[in-house]
Amino acid sequence: MMEQDARTMSGSRRTFADMTSRRIAAAAVVAATLALSAPARAGGPPYPPYPPPPSYAPSYAPPPARTYYAPPPPRVVAPPPPLSPAMRVVYAPFYAAGLVLRYGFYYVVVAPFEVFGRALDYGVQGGVDRPEGGR
Asked: Does residue 69 form part of some domain?
C-alpha cells in the first residue's frame, strides 16, 4: 500500500521539516501551559476549616399574618347611547348582510342536512302513525 502524499493547504508537498516545527511548537505550548499552571496549583495557604454547627436548633419567626382585603366593587359601565337615525341608515346594510350570512348559512347548508337526516331516521312515515280514517 502506498501512502498518499500529505499536502499543505497551498498544495505544496509537506516535508519533514514542516512536521518537526509543528511538533516543536505544540510541545512548547503544552510545556508553557503546564509551567504557568503549576504555581497556581501549589501556592497559597490552605482554606480555613468549616465553622462548627450550631448547638441549638435555629428558630424561625412565623410568617406575618395575611391581611385579606375585600374585593373592589364591580365597575358600573353606563350603556352606550342609542345610535342616531343617520348612523342607523349607515349601519343598516351591514346589519342586513350579517343576518343573511348567519341565517342564510344555516338554512342553505345546515338545515337540508338536518331534514335529510331525519328522513333517514324516521323513514317515509316520518315517525307519525296515520289516523284511522285517513288514506
From this structure: no
Write the CA distances from 26 to 6, 22, 32, 33, 121, integer angstroms. 19, 6, 10, 11, 89
Residue 97: inside a domain: yes
Which long-range contacts does 100-105 make (Cβ < 8 Å, 24+ apart)?
A: none
Nine-digit cell string for 60: 424561625
Domain hosting residue 13, numbered range? 8-41
Task: Please compute, for residue 8, the number of CA atoms within 13 A of its CA located in the half-sphere on the CB side.
Answer: 10
CB burial of 15-32 (b: ≥16 within 10 Å; e: otherwise) equals: eeeeeeeeeeeeeeeeee
- Using CA atoms, how far apart are residues 116 and 109, in angstroms rounded to an integer? 12
pLDDT digits (tens, 9 = 90+) for 58-117: 667 788 888 888 888 999 999 999 999 999 999 999 999 999 999 998 999 899 999 888
Query: Hey, what amino acid is at 39?
Result: P
Cα→Cα distances 40→35, 37, 43, 55, Å: 10, 5, 6, 37
Domain count of the fold of the chain: 2
